[in-house]
Prior knowledge:
Bound molecules: D-malate
Largest sheet: 7 strands, mixed
CATH class of the largest domain: Alpha Beta
Radius of gyration: 21 Å
Distance between the termini: 53 Å
Order of helices and strands: HEHHEHEHEEEEHEEHEEEHHHEEHEEEH
CATH architecture of the largest domain: 3-Layer(aba) Sandwich
Strand content: 15-25%
CATH superfamily of the largest domain: Type I PLP-dependent aspartate aminotransferase-like (Major domain)
Amino acid sequence: MTTMNQHFLELQGSYLFSEVAKRRTKYMEQNPQADVISLGIGDVTRGLPQAVIKAMHAAVDDMVNVETFKGYGPEQGYSFLINEIIANDYKARGVELNTDEVFLSDGSKCDVGNIQEIFSTDSIVAVQDPVYPVYVDTNVMAGRAGTFITNIGRYEKIVYLDCSAKNDFKPSLPTEKVDLIYLCYPNNPTGMTLTKEELKVWVDYAIENDCIILFDSAYEAFITEDNVPHSIYEIEGAKKVAIEFRSFSKTAGFTGIRCAYTVVPKEIQGRDVNGNAVSVNELWNRRHTTKFNGVSYVTQKGAEAIYSTEGKAQIRELVDYYMTNAAMIREGLREAGFSVFGGVNAPYIWLKTPEGYNSWSFFDYLLSEANIVGTPGVGFGQCGEGYFRLTAFGSRENTERAIARIKQLSL
Length: 411
Ligand code: MLT
């Protein structure tokens, strides 16, 4: 028999959202009459903006004519989209980027999962806890996490940065030497944010301690408050130490279409085993061109349309729709007596489970008593135990019905 990759065998259970989906499906099979409302995985429910649809239709027509047909495109993405990204998402916020610092892909999940490949397997990884599980699992697969310590529910070699209500879900700096720090802001799952001053502390730390920040800002479009940075590059010096991940999934309804991008500034340097400087950008480019053949032309034309005047207005409407849901969930849960976090600058609402319930028992209770699917906080890490996440990505009607059901529960 062929020997399997032992690192993969260190993974715990199944991927969180697959497990949630499995339990939901089982419940629905056993209770076919149940009217289940899903506020679990953060998947969008509104249709694509009209500007995107129009652009994608036109792009399909381009593929019919020999003169405009497109085969393989650049692995990094077409310049028509990269230029819009740089002008609108960065230059407009005072950040200068070159076109070869932006890499398009088919999703941030893939990019945040793949990025670790270019770093040494000896690198020490720090993650927030609770954390988007992809950061941890992909490092487990790479052999960077060591073994899982069952009684504490953590991997031996990962540095966990605890986040709880006590520190307002804002982690302290690591107390030991780390090489890679995953930060996610606005945060998934807690929905919390850092101010510019707070993020600067991390950038300064990374500069002083020679480490790299992997900054996931997939939920940037949902920021409503001033002084919450939209990009880590708004912080001075960040281009030397940070890689940023952005996605069109939640902003533009692209979870099924697939398009995201990663910014790898040329200023970031790593080193080889002899201590010689290595360009992180060049190595990521090497990896990307080897393993990825580009986002489809039709998809990129759709993404480009997001930056048109019409597209921008439609995206704003989409984001506002979900953030109205977020406000309704937040207020509704408060009225029902829950302690609630997030939901102001992010489409996630993080709540404390009621007395006597842990994350999974509350999941089961909510599913059976209110037919609502959420995500158990412990699925994001030990610090998530006793918490629960609801998403604002449902339809308005389902969001209203879910809150009405929760208010009826006798907790
Ligand atoms: C989530 O629910 O946390 C996200 O939708 C998962 C993802 O984007 O992969």
